[in-house]
Automatic annotation (TrEMBL):
<dbReference type="GO" id="GO:0012505">
    <property type="term" value="C:endomembrane system"/>
</dbReference>
<dbReference type="InterPro" id="IPR023631">
    <property type="entry name" value="Amidase_dom"/>
</dbReference>
<dbReference type="InterPro" id="IPR020556">
    <property type="entry name" value="Amidase_CS"/>
</dbReference>
<protein>
    <submittedName>
        <fullName>Amidase</fullName>
    </submittedName>
</protein>
<dbReference type="Pfam" id="PF01425">
    <property type="entry name" value="Amidase"/>
</dbReference>
<feature type="domain" description="Amidase">
    <location>
        <begin position="24"/>
        <end position="464"/>
    </location>
</feature>
<dbReference type="InterPro" id="IPR052739">
    <property type="entry name" value="FAAH2"/>
</dbReference>
<dbReference type="InterPro" id="IPR036928">
    <property type="entry name" value="AS_sf"/>
</dbReference>
Length: 483
């Protein structure tokens, strides 16, 4: 049997039944990577020798009667995670020789659960793009169309999963970096509730791996099935043992419902700042129709929904405030001069980006107060609904665009060009208030490209969108291998 596209759950069952060994799974995965990854370039750092050793140890452990959640399962890890013995560069050539002294907390948890890591997956420079390319490791291509991006910044992980290079992967998400690659490559990903999953060791090269609380950014699981997402999230979830983990442990509530027909869902397909392309609208409506056909309550409007325009503006200011935090002083002065010239009436996303770049601490506190009002609005919304279905980006995967000035790039939406960074507004809808969101495939566009949507759930009720994803998979189908 060919195991490369089996789910982690299926592999675990086969390993327990003695139908296959971990050593056999690893050899098969390595053979596929060596055969196919030259065209995809998903695995930028290979770790095959240690993977084979870990697989043999997993088989020996199973022979002794051990059975851990991921024992013997082949997987990959995003390049931005620290892993002993392997470089962490974030795609920056000056750090090509930087090798961390210890594993990221999530890498340690994967190893403790018995996972076998095949290698690390490619990222954009500094994790700062919705594509995955850099001068150190080159360009990762979308397995469905090599002329298109797999997304970013967890694009290498998504491309690896779509190509059958391991059953699981882990990535990170601030601007849709888990969800967008999942959408572009036709796989599943879950952005956890902010703070649910410890992030120590997912840190820029040469910086200390400290247990800090990041603003908006999370780490999370990627897989080819929603049940695998749940399996991996259970391994990853929990506070850092150096801080909150000294006193607290995770006890996520169960999903709100077991049946698809019991869900109450708000469906969104239009945003005030950017249109939604026809292929993505079709994906959203495919999910809405499946929900309605199953008897779920489906609404298209609600007065409880926080204002989408203000949400996008707040998110953009937070996002760009963090992205320029280390700009040289002279650049900061230039930005402040430009921001001072903005009209008070200018509430565009371009203006929000510029204002975010020069956000003072006092201004940040004011913006954060507005965020708390949005969080309260979402709490009220989720008393009436169980999930929100909406786009991740306005289009399927777009052609590679490596032009040097990202602010000058454009994205084509049904023949009309729009500012490149405006496509982040849908990802920011869940990111800004810290809500969990599961990316699910909905089928293919007329051009044969994957189309995904996100299921946004209530804070700390991650099992609710994950359960909804599982039920939708049964209704409309899930992962398809690239043709």
């Amino acid at each position: 049997m060919e195991w490369n596209f089996a789910t982690a759950e299926e592999l675990g069952a086969a390993l327990r039944a003695g139908e296959v060994t971990s050593a056999e799974l690893i050899d098969e995965a390595i053979a596929r990577i060596e055969r196919d990854d030259k065209a995809i370039n998903a695995i930028c750092v290979r770790d095959f020798d240690r993977a084979r050793t870990a697989a043999r140890r997993a088989d020996q452990a199973r022979a002794r009667g051990e059975d851990r959640p991921l024992l013997g399962i082949p997987m990959t890890v995003k390049e931005s995670y620290n892993m002993t013995g392997l470089p962490t560069t974030w795609g920056m050539p000056q750090y090509r020789d930087y090798v961390p002294a210890e594993d990221a907390v999530q890498v340690a948890r994967l190893k403790a659960a018995g996972a076998v890591v095949l290698g690390k997956t490619n990222v954009p420079l500094g994790l700062q793009d919705i594509q995955s390319f850099n001068k150190l490791y080159g360009t990762t291509n979308n397995p469905w169309d090599h002329e298109r991006t797999p997304g970013g910044s967890s694009g290498g992980s998504a491309a690896a999963l779509a190509s059958g290079f391991g059953a699981l992967s882990i990535g990170s998400d601030l601007a849709g970096s888990l969800r967008t690659p999942a959408h572009f490559c036709g796989i599943y990903a879950h952005k956890p509730t902010l703070g649910l999953v410890a992030n120590r060791g997912m840190v820029a090269p040469a910086e200390p791996a400290l247990p800090v609380d990041l603003d908006m950014a999370v780490v999370g699981p990627m897989a080819r099935s929603p049940r695998d997402l749940m399996l991996l999230l259970d391994v990853m979830a929990g506070p850092d043992p150096l801080t909150l983990g000294k006193a607290y442990h995770v006890n996520l509530p169960p999903a709100r419902h077991k049946r698809l027909g019991d869900f109450r869902v708000l469906v969104l397909e239009q945003h005030p700042f950017i249109p939604t392309g026809s292929a993505v609208r079709a994906g959203v409506n495919r999910v809405a129709d499946a929900l309605a056909d199953a008897g779920a309550r489906v609404e298209r409007h609600s007065p409880l929904l926080p204002d989408l325009a203000e949400a996008a503006t707040l998110y953009t200011r937070f996002q760009f405030s963090g992205s320029v935090a280390r700009f040289p002083v002279e650049t900061d002065e230039q930005l402040r001069t430009r921001a001072a010239r903005l009209s008070a009436d200018d509430q565009s996303l371009d203006a929000a980006r510029l204002r975010g770049m020069v956000l003072s601490h006092r201004d940040w506190l004011e913006v954060n107060n507005r965020r708390e009002l949005h969080r309260h609005g979402w709490r009220q919304l989720f008393t009436e609904f169980d999930a929100v279905v909406c786009p991740i980006t306005p289009t399927p995967a777009f052609p590679h665009d490596h032009s040097r000035n990202p602010l000058a790039r454009r994205i084509d939406i049904d023949g009309v060009e729009h500012p490149y960074f405006d496509q982040y507004v849908w990802a920011g809808l869940a990111t800004m208030p810290g809500l969990p969101a599961t990316a699910v495939p909905t089928g293919l566009s007329p051009d044969g490209l994957p189309v995904g949507v996100q299921l946004i759930g209530p804070m700390y009720e991650d099992r609710t969108p994950l359960r909804l994803a599982e039920l939708l998979e049964q209704r409309i189908g899930g992962f398809q291998a690239p043709k």
